[in-house]
């Protein structure tokens, strides 16, 4: 249903510009009658980044904005289908994460610019690129982590791509889109520096996770994910980890461990009795718990949200 380990850094602007049927070569979108472009995003994470680049010159609709919603299991509605059909630019995660989007695009007909962040990122192995897999197809998603919004360099690449596409469709505002993307990129560059500094403050620092959601942020920070892969993958797939794997995970919090954990990073949107057990083990020995989410909390934007999470990680690694 979702992710895994970690790949390398994001590559250049390689996302495909697609038709709704998934083939290449769609023309740049035309502005709506009121002069604004319509961007449709699968989640409010990508909607927020589109807003940062497009500003008031662009109309943004995010299909998933509920902080409690799980995009892995989201079921699209007829309203979603109509929204996608009316979009000039569509942004979605790809990589099997928001698998309802390719289906909506296929049924939408017509032509629009589609940005598949999985394709854009360069983080998906070549044999996986362009494939969409469901939770029931028997495919092992262990080769890559599809939570690309925690790959900060990838989000810079996405902002640049959005500026390029919006500017091509709306030349009068192209300079504004470019400037907005540059401002966003600078803010993200600051987050990268802060994450790297946090990790550098505890060289070789080990952390545990309940799911691989924050994997790219852990990688950027230079931290070590000590979690047994079988544990985080089972939680990711909504299955119960084997008892021996749970025991091995809980053993990470043994105070007698020579190299104690610096933090537990927990996905607050998918807590289960098993992850609650891990949280309790961490709290019992004073290991800080850092909560992360998959969608934006209400009342914030991407930069604010990610800043809060980087600051929480920094504080956990260096408690007062």
From TrEMBL:
<keyword id="KW-0479">Metal-binding</keyword>
<dbReference type="GO" id="GO:0046872">
    <property type="term" value="F:metal ion binding"/>
</dbReference>
<dbReference type="GO" id="GO:0030313">
    <property type="term" value="C:cell envelope"/>
</dbReference>
<dbReference type="GO" id="GO:0030001">
    <property type="term" value="P:metal ion transport"/>
</dbReference>
<keyword id="KW-0813">Transport</keyword>
<protein>
    <submittedName>
        <fullName>Zinc ABC transporter substrate-binding protein</fullName>
    </submittedName>
</protein>
<dbReference type="Pfam" id="PF01297">
    <property type="entry name" value="ZnuA"/>
</dbReference>
<dbReference type="InterPro" id="IPR006127">
    <property type="entry name" value="ZnuA-like"/>
</dbReference>
<keyword id="KW-0732">Signal</keyword>
<dbReference type="InterPro" id="IPR050492">
    <property type="entry name" value="Bact_metal-bind_prot9"/>
</dbReference>
<feature type="signal peptide">
    <location>
        <begin position="1"/>
        <end position="20"/>
    </location>
</feature>
